[in-house]
Amino acid sequence: MEDQLxxxxxxxxxxxxxxxxxxxxxxxxxSEREQGITIDVAYRYFSTPRRxxxxxxxxxxxxxxxxxxxxxxxxxxxxxxxDARKGVLEQSRRHAYIAALLRIPHLVVCINxxxxxxxxxQRFEEIRAEFAAFLPRLDIRDVTFIPISALEGDNxxxxxxxxxxxxxxxxxxxxxxxYIASDYNMRHxxxxxxxxxxxxxSEWHDFRGFSGQIAGGTVRPGDEVMVLPTGLRSKxxxxxTYDGPLDEAWCPMSVTLRLxxxxxxxxxxxxxxxxxxxxxxNQHRADLCWMHPQPLHLGRKYVIKQGTxxxxxxxxxxxxxxxxxxxxxxxxxxxxxPNDIGRIHFRTSEAFAYDSYRDNRxxxxxxxxxxxxxxxxxxxxxxxxxxxxxxxTSDYAI
Length: 398
Known about the structure:
The protein has three domains: 182 residues, 3-Layer(aba) Sandwich (Rossmann fold), CATH 3.40.50.300; 84 residues, Translation factors (Elongation Factor Tu (Ef-tu), domain 3, Beta Barrel); 104 residues, Translation factors (Elongation Factor Tu (Ef-tu), domain 3, Beta Barrel), CATH 2.40.30.10. It is an alpha+beta fold. The strands form five sheets. Strands 6, 7, 8, 10, 11, 12, 14 and 15 form an eight-stranded antiparallel sheet that branches.
């Protein structure tokens, strides 16, 4: 956009080049432009006739892992840049691992700076083979390799005349055409209730609906739904939006549902398909990215926010911490510090409904909040329980 270009012109002196450096488009902090590194997550918006895009530029340095997790948590596609001169580095593997951990369904590996290796097909194939050997550990099904020169524009928007050996899409063409409709879980209906909608107007005197964003599946009038954690059942009477009633709604639409029965539903409840409910438990396993300077304390009370539901939680066990350099689990770790990723066991003061993050990113994600400071200290991804867990909370001192 024009205002962004004007900002780049004014800041050109900070780059030391005296001209616009498009690489600084997403580096909004002065310290980022002076050092030539990305520190915070930067979002930039653009659109083409085919799609609208949001780019989340995340830092590559290990000390900013938490920033990358924040930026990538809602992404449909991850783009990993590899310097053609240096090949696959630890940073490249770490970024791909975090993308896989966050269940980003599409990965694009851009072999950049091909102009500095004379647009060598052999060099491209070497790097692709090296990265492909790492892929079985990631469990990402859709991976695309594209050789580019960001500086010269080769294979970014238009096909490169310097690399006629590449028969795949350009980067923009791939971004415009990658199929993302199946990224959401469309099999199991989920609606975390954000608020109870009662207009209190004469024409809507008896209206009582439950509003929220659909987090999975589809819903139609007449479908039987279950309310969790109470287990009450009813059928969908009507589906409403601002523009009027609908015959069908699906993820990720924001809607208001009216039920046929007057049952107890409030903020924090989860409406789900009666025949395909999620897990309901108060003992859990999860992968966790720790974000706060204060380390994890086993047995300390935290607040968990999952969807629209909140509860108190205690971390009872640290199963392992991931060595971010080797990507191997360290079972001897005693705690988690800033930017650490590990697997924990925790229990909550009350049972709540969730899906495994692998099956549904929207209903399987949560954050931990410190009760004293109200700071968000960690982001987590729920795992399916290993066995049927008790939901008796009578002996919990939370």
